[in-house]
Amino acid sequence: MFNKKSFAVLKKLTVFSVFLCLALSCKDNMPITFKETVFNSKTTADIDILYPKVTEAHPIAKQINTEIEHYISQRLLFKDTTAQISIKAAAAAFDNELNQFKTAFPETPQHWEALIEGEVLYQTPALICIGISSYTYTGGAHGNDTIAFLNFNPETGALFTKAELFQNLSEFSALTESFLKKEIEIGKRETMADYFFGEAFKLPESIGFNEEGVIMLYNKYEIASYAQGITEFVIPYSEAEPFLKIMP
């Protein structure tokens, strides 16, 4: 259904092609099962959303589903908020912004769209990694596409923080930097600051997991220019293990 470049990147990272009846044990020995959920709206803008949702029977379903739906809603809103807004309400707000624009500039043709797709990338008794790829277009030369990873604790349903996942971050950063240099093939006259807009190297905002290792993903504008696109690579568990507080 979606054919944006970012969705192709997400598909490449996917361990599972579908997540119907995907289940592993939690602390209560009750399987955490995800089902495919679809939301579409063509009221004003074109909005297509596909995402995994924990079946309501599980005791931590609400916690995980709330986090996933909150992230998706944020992609449709024009300002960050900690308030919990449903996907339906966020889609209505997205439509409302377009209607206001059309009212202010009636002679300007506008077609807005939002394409969001999420899926289970990796699931073990220690961690659940959800990948969410989003593309929004609200005018201009190009749209905004982003990939994010939500790493859940299967026992509580809470999102892991970076500090809960990794230790010795300075050494892990050095390891990540070495992988990045290989990925982007830095020339002899270039420095890492050339790719981080004059600043020092930093870890990506999007860090996920799959069966091969730790996924490090820099979205557009996070490193280099828009033309650079998404930069992603995987650090094998054999090299990342000393820095992991949990072994996925």
UniProtKB/TrEMBL annotation:
This is Deacetylase PdaC domain-containing protein. Residues 174-238 form the DUF3298 domain. Residues 1-20 form the signal peptide. It comes from Mangrovimonas yunxiaonensis. It comes from the Bacteria. It holds the Pfam family PdaC. The keyword Magnesium does not apply. Residues 42-144 form the Deacetylase PdaC domain. Keywords: Signal.
